[in-house]
Design brief:
The chain is α/β, with parallel strands linked by helices and 321 residues long. It has helices spanning 10-21, 29-41, 52-61, 76-84, 129-138, 191-194, 197-202, 207-217, 220-237, 258-268, 305-320, and strands at residues 45-49, 67-70, 89-92, 114-118, 120-121, 125-126, 142-146, 166-170, 183-187, 251-254, 277-280, 290-293. Strands 1-9-8-7-4-2-3 form a seven-stranded mixed beta sheet, sandwiched between helices. Strands 10-12-11 form a three-stranded antiparallel beta sheet. A two-stranded antiparallel sheet has the order 5-6. Helix 3 (52-61) packs across helix 4. The longest helix has 18 residues, at 220-237.
């Protein structure tokens, strides 16, 4: 049994090919894609970008104050781009990536600052976006949610401008919106784009990427829910999983010897690319000894019962050995 990474759907590849060849040259996919993003994120304004990191760059460029980042479970680009822009970085203590808004009371935060975080802490645990949003709105803090893994939430909490002020996403591979490159930014505040005209001009995108995103958006709700259901099943049967009562799109399991066990898991759960199984501590996941299994990276055909049971049995047997 060979696990496979997800790839863009055949339909997505075909429509991108048609755009590239000129067959669909009269279709304004960028505008249609932006309209679809606005609908999905419940926002008034949206722009397609060249990448997820470029989306972060645009969002952070609009912030005048400091940038608050979680101490783990985020994305290293938050810090790197903040430093590049000359922003003061405030690190927020979390519960293995999960943000408790009350912790912000312990921090001296300048005016016009922003909190940037991912929909799922380390991809494994849903952030309490409602509580985060309520606290930040009451205290003048802009919320920037990296919803690369939360777009299409059927509960309409994650990746929704009803709660977060700015939604950013990557649509590179492998993501929930799985095109290979590109990204987007959405907000109800048009000033975000007026303050960042230069970063947006530097964000080179095209109709080909827009056409791919537009096509993938059609199935994003179904694909996200399929991934969430698969991860929920794994957490239920693997007792060492972290935050096993939270929705997530990957599995992080506690492990005292992550280097050795990661190697063993890679041999027993073969996949044709790297990046499926990784060891922690890792800022992008959790800063403790553990192993992350990237369910979100798998081809949707690999989220069937037989594949999930293979993961469950392999992990549990290895940890009991």
């Amino acid at each position: 049994m060979m696990f496979e990474f997800k790839t863009p759907k055949k339909e997505t590849e075909e429509i991108m090919s048609d755009v590239a060849s000129g067959k669909l040259e009269n279709t304004n996919f960028e505008k249609e894609c932006e309209d679809a993003v606005k609908k999905l994120t419940n926002s008034q304004f949206a722009k397609i970008t060249s990448s997820g990191n470029n989306s972060i760059f645009v969002a952070l460029s609009s912030i005048e104050g400091s940038v608050i980042v979680p101490d783990q479970g985020g994305w290293h680009g938050f810090k790197q781009i903040s430093k590049f822009l000359g922003k003061e970085i405030i690190t927020l203590e979390t519960d293995l990536g999960l943000i408790n808004p009350k912790q912000l009371d312990e921090v001296d935060i300048p005016d016009n600052s922003a909190l940037i975080f991912t929909s799922f802490a380390g991809y494994c645990a849903e952030q309490d976006v409602k509580s985060i949003s309520k606290y930040c709105n009451n205290n003048g803090i802009t919320t920037i949610e990296d919803a690369s893994a939360g777009i299409g939430d059927e509960k309409e909490i994650l990746g929704n401008c009803r709660y977060s002020d700015i939604i950013i996403a990557s649509t590179g591979q492998p993501k929930i919106i799985n095109v290979g490159s590109g990204g987007f930014i959405a907000t109800d505040d048009e000033n975000v784009f007026q303050k960042t005209s230069l970063p947006l001009k530097l964000s080179k995108t095209n109709e080909i990427i827009s056409s791919g995103i537009y096509e993938e958006l059609k199935s994003v709700r179904q694909n996200l829910q399929l991934t969430l259901n698969a991860t929920k099943h794994l957490k239920k049967h693997i007792p060492t999983s972290i935050h096993n009562d939270k929705r997530g799109v990957n599995l992080i399991i506690k492990e005292d010897n992550p280097k050795e066990k990661t190697w063993e898991l890679k041999k027993q759960l073969p996949i044709n690319k790297s990046g499926f199984i990784n060891k922690c501590p890792n800022y992008n996941r959790v800063k403790t000894k553990a192993i992350s299994i990237e369910i979100k990276n798998l081809n949707y055909n690999c989220l069937k019962q037989e594949y999930l049971d293979k993961i469950i049995n392999t992990v549990n047997n290895l940890q009991q050995a």
